[in-house]
Design goal:
By secondary structure, the chain is an alpha/beta fold. It has a domain of 232 residues: NAD(P)-binding Rossmann-like Domain (Rossmann fold, 3-Layer(aba) Sandwich). It is built from twelve helices and twelve strands. The chain has a seven-stranded parallel beta sheet with strand order 3-2-1-4-5-6-10, with helices on both faces. Strands 7-9-11 form a three-stranded mixed beta sheet. Strands 8-12 form a two-stranded parallel sheet. Helix 5 links the parallel strand 5 and strand 6. Helix 1 packs across helix 7 and helix 4 packs parallel to helix 5. The termini are far apart. Bound molecules: nicotinamide-adenine-dinucleotide and thymidine-5'-diphosphate.
Length: 350
């Protein structure tokens, strides 16, 4: 029996990782630690919450005492650390929250693991989930590899870069058995509707403007969230200590092209005449320090651990659209007064 701690398991990616681990490894005890911020939602896990190998604890990773107490009680063999503040626009208006959770919170977990595992690191693993945004912004060509220099440019990516450095420092200094992965943009069911794809789906459905920053020329490499979860499973079990693995979809899209594809799918799924949703596209003020292009070389992960993404983009996007259209209650519960306040601050009251 193994005891595994997953942090941030009530969030978008974390909930898919928790589901995969609980279902695939009935002989593991999975403990989901999450502070249930605006982005954490236990409704994401209703299908597995009664399984005997699953437990939830509402804990804030910035609370060092609570984190240490949890480690002392549960004797974890492994940690998969996803808890973070994750939205670039929020990091621009409130950097401190990102510093606290993403940097201090990560250090609290590292300290607790080091304390508990001191003297016996055998078979233990601390897996830190990070982002390709730590590498900065690409021009028209080139891909991020595991050896690309860090060059974060937003408070979010700077806080994630800092946490990556600290995780590596604990490997070199204390011999903590760590592994890190840096992934490209995820999409799929359960993503909070502040990120580009779910925000646009929700707006199109409600005939609201689709806000495109700048000219919509920025490029992202999109990966279906379940493919990220399968990579995390592989890396957690088979990745090498001290190593970094890049994860990406080999699927680059200019924002404006992605939104046109999304509009086409939405018209089809909602039974609207072709071209209806695209009329909602509205160019708005660009994001400050907006990274131009992200693109990932995942050949190390593919060659070393045999991972590959399972879904084509259009297939994954349609699956995502159908999920949001079929889960109106999930959306209603999330679109609380707080969301409205965030939306008005970010985009005005249109
Ligand atoms: P999310 O915002 O949907 O979820 C984050 C979760 O962490 C939430 O459940 C939230 O309640 C929890 N959390 C936040 N602060 C906490 C705290 N102080 N203590 C305990 N729990 C806290 O984020 P996501 O998109 O699922 O991202 C998960 C991880 O993956 C993050 O580390 C992020 O940097 C990384 N990542 C995300 C993407 C992406 O495209 N979304 C891509 C690459 C890497
Ligand atoms: P986002 O989903 O916030 O992810 P990230 O900033 O981590 O890449 O944004 C994806 C891209 O879409 C990014 O280039 C910013 C852009 N974007 C818009 O054009 N409009 C929006 O309302 C949002 C949220 C993002």
């Amino acid at each position: 029996m193994k005891n595994i701690l997953i942090t941030g398991g009530a969030g978008f990616i974390g909930s898919h990782v928790v589901r995969l681990m609980v279902n695939k490894y009935p002989h593991y005890n999975i403990l989901n630690l999450d502070a249930l911020t605006y982005a954490g939602n236990l409704e994401n896990l209703t299908d597995i919450e009664h399984k005997p190998n699953y437990q939830f604890e509402k804990i804030d990773i910035t609370d060092a005492k609570m984190v240490s107490r949890l480690f002392a009680t549960h004797k974890f063999d492994g940690v998969i650390h996803l808890a973070a503040e994750s939205h670039v626009d929020r990091s621009i208006s409130n950097p401190l929250e990102f510093i606290n959770t993403n940097i201090l919170g990560t250090v609290n977990l590292l300290n607790a693991a080091r304390m508990e595992w001191n003297g016996n690191m055998e078979g233990k693993r601390f897996y830190h989930i990070s982002t390709d945004e730590v590498y900065g912004s690409l021009g028209e060509t080139g891909l991020f590899t595991e050896t690309t220099s860090y060059d974060p440019r937003s408070p979010y990516s700077a806080s994630k870069a800092s946490s990556d450095h600290l995780v590596r420092a604990y490997f070199h200094t204390y011999g903590l058995p760590v592994v890190i992965s840096n992934c490209s943009n995820n999409y799929g069911p359960n993503q909070f509707p502040e990120k580009l794809i779910p925000l646009s789906i929700n707006n199109i459905k409600n005939n609201k403007p689709i806000p495109i920053y700048g000219k919509g020329e920025n490029i992202r490499d999109w990966l279906f969230v379940e493919d990220h979860a399968s990579a995390i499973d592989l890396i957690f079990h088979n990745g090498r200590n001290g190593e970094t693995y890049n994860i990406g979809g080999n699927n680059e899209w200019k924002n404006i092209d992605l939104i046109h594809l999304l509009c086409k799918i939405m018209d089809e799924e909602l039974g609207r005449p072709a071209g209806t949703s695209a009329q909602l596209i509205t160019f708005v003020k660009d994001r400050a320090g907006h990274d131009q292009r992200y693109a990932i070389d995942s050949s190390k992960l593919m060659n070393e651990l045999g991972w590959k993404p399972s879904l084509q983009f259009e297939e994954g996007l349609r699956k995502t659209v159908k999920w949001y259209l079929q889960n109106q209650q999930w959306l209603n519960n999330i679109l609380s007064g707080q969301y409205e306040q965030y939306y008005n601050e970010q985009y005005g009251t249109r």
